[in-house]
Amino acid sequence: MYRSHNNGALNLSNTGQEVTLSGWVQKIRDKGFMIWVDLRDRYGITQLIFDEERTEKALIEQAKTLGREFVIQVRGTVIERQSKNTKIPTGEIEILVTDLTILNEAKLPPFTIEDETDGGEELRMKYRYLDIRRNPVKDSLIFRSKVTQEVRNFLSNEDFIEVETPYLIKSTPEGARDFVVPSRMNEGQFYALPQSPQTFKQLLMVGGMDKYFQIVKCFRDEDLRADRQPEFTQIDCEMAFVEQEDILNIFEGLTRHLLKKVNNVEIGDFPRMTFDHAMKTYGNDKPDIRFGMEFGELNEVTKHRNFKVFDDAELVVGIAVPGAASYTRKEIDKLINWVKRPQIGALGMIYVKCNEDGTFKSSVDKFYNQEDLANWAEKTGAKPGDLICVLSGITNKVRAQMSALRMELAERLGLRKPNEFAPLWVIDFPLLELDEETGHYHAMHHPFTSPKPGQLELLDSKPGEVKANAYDLVLNGNEIGGGSIRIHDKEIQATMLKHLGFSEEEAKAQFGFLMDAFEYGAPPHGGLAFGLDRLVAILAGKETIRDFIAFPKNNAGRDVMIDAPSALDEAQLKELNLQLDIVQEIE
Amino acid sequence: MYRSHNNGALNLSNTGQEVTLSGWVQKIRDKGFMIWVDLRDRYGITQLIFDEERTEKALIEQAKTLGREFVIQVRGTVIERQSKNTKIPTGEIEILVTDLTILNEAKLPPFTIEDETDGGEELRMKYRYLDIRRNPVKDSLIFRSKVTQEVRNFLSNEDFIEVETPYLIKSTPEGARDFVVPSRMNEGQFYALPQSPQTFKQLLMVGGMDKYFQIVKCFRDEDLRADRQPEFTQIDCEMAFVEQEDILNIFEGLTRHLLKKVNNVEIGDFPRMTFDHAMKTYGNDKPDIRFGMEFGELNEVTKHRNFKVFDDAELVVGIAVPGAASYTRKEIDKLINWVKRPQIGALGMIYVKCNEDGTFKSSVDKFYNQEDLANWAEKTGAKPGDLICVLSGITNKVRAQMSALRMELAERLGLRKPNEFAPLWVIDFPLLELDEETGHYHAMHHPFTSPKPGQLELLDSKPGEVKANAYDLVLNGNEIGGGSIRIHDKEIQATMLKHLGFSEEEAKAQFGFLMDAFEYGAPPHGGLAFGLDRLVAILAGKETIRDFIAFPKNNAGRDVMIDAPSALDEAQLKELNLQLDIVQEIE
């Protein structure tokens, strides 16, 4: 037996007990006549003491050989500490050691195993097994486990069934790129790894397996942006005989359950907002509504003053930044430079200071009088002391720019409080989205999303205006889930695929099994999927997902710890009937 | 709202209520003046009634258009049934329908959606979404979900943390074949799909993430035998600071919990048996101990009677088949032919009938007298009325043959009762196994398994005799789990890899990250993995796993429903820098 207790378990009530503990040496303080060792495991830290008066000399000598991260086992007696540490559960006791066994030695770690470490990100990823020993990473993984268990408890109580769908499926060129898996047994053929279990969960609904869920890995071979992973985890759900309202209620319940269980926060009914309203008011389909700074559209109140920039703009839009009228010219210039960065791409920014005395001072005083600016203040909801920031240009672009500015300012003003939670349903998404490069419309969610009743007719005439029974769940400015009511009618599905540019043959080859299934009694159905990695991060008050993934990959899709991907040997390639098609460089 | 209740919910207490139900038409009985429809969903069946006296004519006409598997919604009133069906919860009521909406029509299914179907296996796999509507499959999937939820409940209560390990990892030629995944972003390189999360869970232990579990898909590109799947699910577990005893206790607890929760069976301490004893007594390392027929070794008592077959045999072994002395000559001949089939491969079988009067009649009476045969009876535990079956030959082979015969006879005699559960730990597995083809030893479990203390020295002299801290959990003659205490010392791991034929470079290239990790303070650790698919099947009293997998693949590794794997288009291959290396047949 390696331990009678873990290192977070002992307290004053155990005083006098003989105990056995195991763990890692976190810290050693050697005062010569007295040595303290902090012993660490998953559960906490227990202080060990060796001292000249009470400890055998040989044992003290042995303790002096210990180094950081050594793995040891000790036996000893629980005694009361002289100087207590009330911050940890074991802080009132220590162990007077009588036996010490070194279970494994340790080289000096390449970075310190402390909450604040000196290790850079690449180094910590290479030695991820050491990084996981640090509380911030360890606690994140434990937190994730707790969240998933609560998800399962809630859904199981709601009579959902967890069904595993296959990982070796069929490649579909639609959507993002698939990772593929050559089949040795089926020469020249490939499986694909699922980007989501979408079609399978729909088939489960056709199969009557109402109320399905699964916490499942999904795969996308995309050029990775920061904080994207080639493999990621979804909470995937689907229900039959439901309308949008049923789905929103269930998953609002799930989210409320998680906020209560893991954050101890009680939230009432989630607000709902249409996609159009979100875009108009926040420039964004996943608005952070923990703070205001709602968009005020200023086209009407900026016209006819000979300010050509605004007169020519499709959209003129402003936000009121609370308390920012006091910004210096230098601070405002920095803000203007910020919106002009290529990542944001604004050409400039007009501002109005709303003085405490009710007057206004703007960068366009040449064109606009106090009455004009008062109108702007009204439209943006600006109060004395606020700064109105105004951008203009093409609607889509200026909304995105203003949204970025709004989020940046909120960040700077401390309005994005990690422990405040503001969930929001965004509903009535467009069915189709214009690809500006190709000029073609493609499915905004996926080709199985149902248009709103009666809107199918608009597909030909005004494809961009067709709204879908599609919804996203937004939490603190992040999309944490999204879904839709699906098409369950074979004819409508065929029409949709045609509009998305699939020939009849392509549709049959890729989705034939789903279309076939729809002929045998498909029920109305719909669902939702949460991005678990992000959900967990946001519930923990963080926005980067990497610490919530045990073994993440870097931005090149590499696991730098195990050094994957890597080359295969010739025999393996041959068995798979593959050749590399790589131009060898001539040396 | 599609339904106020599901189809398993209503009973006499709801009489008089107006309800809305949705589901599939299971059955229609049309008596002309009266039509009954069985409406089915995941939860049950509710009987609908339309009758001339109480139902509008138009509605009756509409009901007559219904076909099997149509998806419908009805409104109506709950009324008491005339002829009650006490076998189902809703059997005392029916719904007098006032509104009927056909939500989706259905073509005639290619097989009947009944508990006993007329569909063959391939057909049912092609239309798996219809097969899932059948109770046996539906119930199996729901059962599986319940088992996994109970696994998670138990392990979470025991303070285990579920951690997700990556799916895109590194290929290792050791063990079975990997499925590989070409990396587009890392030209010419491949990921591999995990055969198990073995190294990752060990790294989690090095990382201090004590008490890990995961229910996780694993992948093996093997030539498929019946009832093997290229992707399968493991309950994967690992613990730090444990000895074998700690692990056996936890997972015996888990298994006991499952038997209690899902089977309502209480089981005491699980028996334990060494590998050597299991092989000697049952010819098998996963013995079914629900019944006797233990092996009696007969070499000593068959010698010196000039029966050359036995005298020359390495092993002569018999079992007593209860009550089988009454077998006719024809029945015994059939048995002899059964053991001579190529799948079993015995050259013949000797038998002894133990007559009720205490005398014996054998097929070798020419060589053995009554006293000899009495000795055989004693060694095999045969009682009057039993039949002793005796095989002889090379130890390993004859044990396997006798084990197969024992299982076959138990099956025929109805001794393998699906609702009786006999768990068993098999311990002290050999560390290494001789590959008879190559003459080399390889790791019986995997290269990270720890030899028993003090046995490392035998590696050179008697590699076959080194025992490991390795154990299997056996249930009703099936291995449902297996694991070991791992090596946590870098030197021992290096020695093991050397003995397994890895050069230092190979060891470094493949397991370098694990060996490196062992330098930074690896704790003693060990674990276990359950094969979930089989575990679930056995708990349900079945032995085939396919019905417990929502979308299984066939024996060629194909998903015949979605028709995967399939060809990729040229562009996809090009992006992956791959060419097919297939000899095109000239037409």
Give a structural overview:
- The structure is a homodimer of 587-residue chains.
- With 587 residues, chain A is an alpha+beta fold.
- Chain A has three domains: 12-104, OB fold (Dihydrolipoamide Acetyltransferase, E2P); 139-272 and 423-548, Bira Bifunctional Protein, Domain 2 (BirA Bifunctional Protein, domain 2); 291-412, GAD-like domain (Gyrase A, domain 2).
- Chain A has helices spanning 57-64, 121-126, 128-131, 135-157, 198-206, 244-263, 275-282, 299-302, 308-311, 329-340, 370-380, 395-412, 458-461, 490-499, 504-517, 532-539, 570-575; strands spanning 18-30, 34-41, 44-51, 71-80, 93-104, 161-162, 180-182, 190-192, 212-219, 231-240, 272-274, 296-297, 315-321, 350-354, 360-362, 387-393, 423-427, 432-434, 441-443, 470-475, 478-485, 525-531, 578-580.
- In chain A, strands 6-9-10-22-21-20-17-11 form an eight-stranded mixed sheet, with helices on both faces.
- In chain A, a hairpin with a 5-residue loop joins strand 14 and strand 15.
- In chain A, helix 4 (135-157) crosses helix 6 (244-263), helix 4 crosses helix 16 (532-539) and helix 14 packs antiparallel against helix 15.
- The two termini of chain A are 60 Å apart.
- Chains A and B meet through strand 1, helix 3, helix 4, strand 6 and strand 7 of A and strand 1, helix 3, helix 4, strand 6 and strand 7 of B.
